[in-house]
UniProtKB/TrEMBL annotation:
InterPro entries: Big_2, Invasin/intimin_cell_adhesion. SMART domains: BID_2. Gene3D superfamilies: 2.60.40.1080. Pfam families: Big_2. This is BIG2 domain-containing protein. Residues 27-106, 197-276, 284-361 form the BIG2 domain.
Amino acid sequence: MKLKITFFIIFSFLLFNCSSSDKPEIEVNTVAFSFRVQEKQLALYQDFDLLKELVVNEKIDLKNIEFSSSNTNVAIVNKQVLRTKSVGQATITAKVLSTGKTATLKIIVKDSNISFENYTLTVDIDKTKSVDLKKHLVLKDLKIEDIVWISQTPEIAQVDQQGVVSILEKGRTLIFAKVKDNESVWGSMEIFVKDSSVESINILSKPQDNEFVIGNKYKYQLRIWPEGSATGKLVWESSDPSVMSVDQDGNVEAKSEGSATITVKAANGVSSSIGVMVGSGKIRYVAVSLYPDRIINGEKKELSVTILPSSATKSKLRFTSSDTSLATVDQDGVVSSVKGKRGRVTIWATSKDDSTVRDMIDIDIVSAFYHVRIYTELNGKVQAGSITGDLQYIVNLYGLEYMEVSEFKVFDQSGTLLYQDTKAQNIREADSSRYYFTLENAHKPYVTYQLKYKDHIEYRKEYINLR
């Protein structure tokens, strides 16, 4: 009995092995083909390598993969490179051409942007050791985790990946905030690192081009940059104290004729200098002018006077008039014309110290109504001195700020009133009073009207001249 059981076991074992060897081996498909994530957010106009997002088994030939976009208005694919075109969504499909196996990736395109609240930031190295730029960062459709930080000049300021800037040296650098894997989206802030000491000093020029007359005193002012920076003790010096002295508050005094250089120096060595000239105050050159070179009788105008050296004054000049019945001139160069007079007068300006140093100007003394011009326009005919038609009489003003025209009347040769407009019209410079009337065979007509400017009044009678 035991032999039968043993034989049966051996026979069954052999039979099982024979049956198993006749069956083919089952191959397990372990080929991997998918995107690392199901959804990806990209910025506008961003290029993206799709192969980097694929998980691919080594058995798949990468050249055998084809990519396509469901919305080419949002994103297009060229070989393996995706480029975003507009805000929106698209599905990217990767397909293995040999097997038909596919993988999909949802693309979301947003108009992302990075900016800072201010373009520049100035820090004092003596007072500030670090700055958190995240407080100044403005993100649109981005998260702070998407940002990488870069310093253009790490020797001046370094930045860590939390956006904290460490101040190291004086100078200027740019700090960039960029999107990971997207060079097209970035922002920057310019960092100026300074210390509290003065960087520059400028002595502000004295009026009259730093020319002085013996005995003149003046206190020089300074422009310091940066404003409010520490200068330490300032030291003032004169290159020639016998010509120009200076005290330690910047007060100078002209001592004798000549030239000198005034210098001020800060504690850190920053300095500024200015050249000065000291003269006797005698006038070497004079020029007088007046524009326009005419004065309404009864009014005043001050001459424009140029003197060299500029430190000299008009008190060193003598003003005279060639005809005091037309106009007089005072020692400030103010010309006063005589009311009711007309003509031309010559005004002289002569140095009291040297009569050969002088200049002159011719001035016309005119009526206020010198500035009036008359124009006529006729739509009709003139025959044997008689006028028929529609006529426009124009009183035009130039070179004067205003004038009043009134009591306008038209008569024929016999004195018969043909037209009148007695209302006062105020006209401005370059403006006109216009009168429209119709004449019917009017023989040698004339007009009368009144002109008024301030207290100047003139009555006019003018024959209508159409030549």
